[in-house]
Specification:
The structure is a homodimer of 443-residue chains. Chain A is an alpha/beta fold and 443 residues long. The first copy, chain A, is 38% helix and 13% strand. The first copy, chain A, contains 14 helices and eleven strands. The longest helix of chain A is centred in the C-terminal third of the chain and has 26 residues. Chain A is globular and about 55 Å long. At the A-B interface, helix 10 and helix 12 of A face helix 10 and helix 12 of B.
Amino acid sequence: MGKSLEYSTIEELSKLLSSLEISTKELALHLLDRSEKLDPDLNVWVTMNPNLEIETYSQGNTSQLAGIPMGIKDIYCTRDMKTTCCSPIYEKYEPGYDAQTVKMLRDAKAVIMGKTVTTQFACGDPPPTKNPWNLSRTPGGSSSGSAVGVASGMFPAALGSQTAGSVLRPASYNGVVGFKPTYGLVSRQGVFPVALSLDTMGWFTRSVKDAAILLRYLSGYDAEDKDSVKVDTKSYISNTEPISRPPYIGIVEDFYYENSDRSTMKTFALLLAKLSKAGAIIETANTQLDFDSILKSHRVIMNCEAANTHKDNYEIRPDDFAPRVKEIIENGLNTPAHTYIQSKHFQQNYTRQVSKLSKKYDALIMPTSLSAAPTTETTGEPIFQAPWTMAGVPAISLPYELDDDGMPLGVQIISNHFNELNLLSTSMWIESVVNFTHKPPLI
Amino acid sequence: MGKSLEYSTIEELSKLLSSLEISTKELALHLLDRSEKLDPDLNVWVTMNPNLEIETYSQGNTSQLAGIPMGIKDIYCTRDMKTTCCSPIYEKYEPGYDAQTVKMLRDAKAVIMGKTVTTQFACGDPPPTKNPWNLSRTPGGSSSGSAVGVASGMFPAALGSQTAGSVLRPASYNGVVGFKPTYGLVSRQGVFPVALSLDTMGWFTRSVKDAAILLRYLSGYDAEDKDSVKVDTKSYISNTEPISRPPYIGIVEDFYYENSDRSTMKTFALLLAKLSKAGAIIETANTQLDFDSILKSHRVIMNCEAANTHKDNYEIRPDDFAPRVKEIIENGLNTPAHTYIQSKHFQQNYTRQVSKLSKKYDALIMPTSLSAAPTTETTGEPIFQAPWTMAGVPAISLPYELDDDGMPLGVQIISNHFNELNLLSTSMWIESVVNFTHKPPLI
């Protein structure tokens, strides 16, 4: 094996498993062992799958996910484990059924290793999880455990979710790939909501190819998700390859350049030079987007819908909510309907603007976050990721370099709705140019 | 001519015009003359088209609407007339452009006779318009002038709009055909909104065939209407004919039977017998719909969105709003966002229920309104029409009989989303069975 099992991709592991070079049990126990060693420092897990050893024997070989161990954010319902949302209110909750995406993973014979730490109710309160690159830095939120598990070699892939920036930001902070598909492309059935106009399922992997593999297994219409969209998903993501011509890339400078820290700015400029040298056609995108209004509307929609989600529990047990969740609910409860309606209309118009803008390019790029991971009293700012969640366009973050403190930085890449093909193939091209091979300083 | 010009259908007039038996000018002046005689009693008009005589000369003959005079509810913007919404705030408003649907009518060479009375801002305050069947009865609202103009022989067709029951109720009260297509099928660009989740353009005609003809000219995607839907509209409504086999009809009894007055119940039962005798397969539809919650959610959505529509004007000129509009705005302003969000979720689930229910039948039928037109201190109750507006399914009302007081009663017919073909062909079949030929007791 050229690479250690703990840092292999789905693609690599799948080959080892199907050629019988390793067994599913061997792989699972190896990763379990690593988990047990690292978890006391990193706090990735909420619940480990009690049936893991049994499951590892049930290998199938028709699926690329057969025998692949995965972490699942603890807001996804699971038939055989608790789903706590890392909240005292749900600490004993056993839904007894699988979220649609978990079911799809099991159908593809993936091995569900267990449930990973989420910030409380997938909002902004800091989690116990630590950043494997530097334990004094935040792993980001809200999909903290899923991101850190992939970054630290506990599992090759994990499910998360994004309402503002909860997949792409932790991906960026932890040096892994974070992907969020087009709104409506992947079912949210069985996942505890934050705000249904925004919530998008997503995942962490070690390569763009792996993100594409998961999309193939997880996308598709689901009548149980009220915003699920009927589109043909199988054809355009079946076998993603790097784009075969130099990609045409637009840079989103407005707002992003003025809010990035110096280290990010400097490193991002070098990235652009590198991409350009490799043949990419790069130009400044004339976005004409009003980012202040975008973020304000995003916040209104999130607060109001989260208030609706939590209202009944909040009335009975207000003190069991963490401060940031509480603030969101309170703000939401105090917002009049017409303010919410205005924000929804804004979202609709803005979504069209983004669609029009992104149509021009193979992809738009910008830094994923303002800076590398900040310290642990926060999960970091979601303002760089939220605009694309709100527009519902697919987005991916790739690690591309370390900053002066040795912390990973991510580049965010977006494309038009349901244009995952271009997004992924352009991202694969960028990935091959940046060739990020750094690993966190762990055992 | 077998029929007087004033009670001819579009179909009949189009034949007369294209065979040159009458000229567009002759027709327009004839109807103008009738308008001038009747309007002092009926109050149909807000503004007559000052260019009418010029327009009547611009006859084309490629369109079935060429030379057909039409009334336009005074919330549709028009390039050459005021658009007042019958509100003191807009009494001098000259938009200078045509609503998309008005533009489409002009492109089809229809003659825009003028702007018809709406209740203030298309809400529930009684209008000055009178019911031609009995001047002491309401014409219904909000598209009062458009309905009465068609009923009294001033023009063969007119545009209205429906947020609760503002097309089908006045159609029923005045003994004409009222039609509202699937939500998203006809552009609302340039029409003053009430509540954008509910507002649907619609029209009044003297036959189902005429409703279908207008649909052919007025349907289609419009990027300027945020809820416009991309569907192929031309194929399935090009040449609607009565359904060629006995239609399979579901009766919606729940809620409708318990709220209809005795005269409506009695007459509706005779209608069912008549349809059954003519060959229709009729059964009770098992709706399992919670009409109380439907109407409550409808009200919340309407109030909140109307508050958003009017908020800026209301802050400056509260006293220029009529009592019913005021009440809607006040209720809306005082509704928290989470209540609105719940109603929107309810609407989504309910819409799926209706879609599933209506799929089983060629059409569902029920009385259009609780009773014939009540007296003029009200525009009548919209509770029989609002459920289908909220579900976004196409709906039509046909006059089928007079009640004991000689007032017309309507049957409401609905079908599944974008299933206008079945709705219209089933309605044509019903129309031919009921053969309603009564006319209001006018000159």
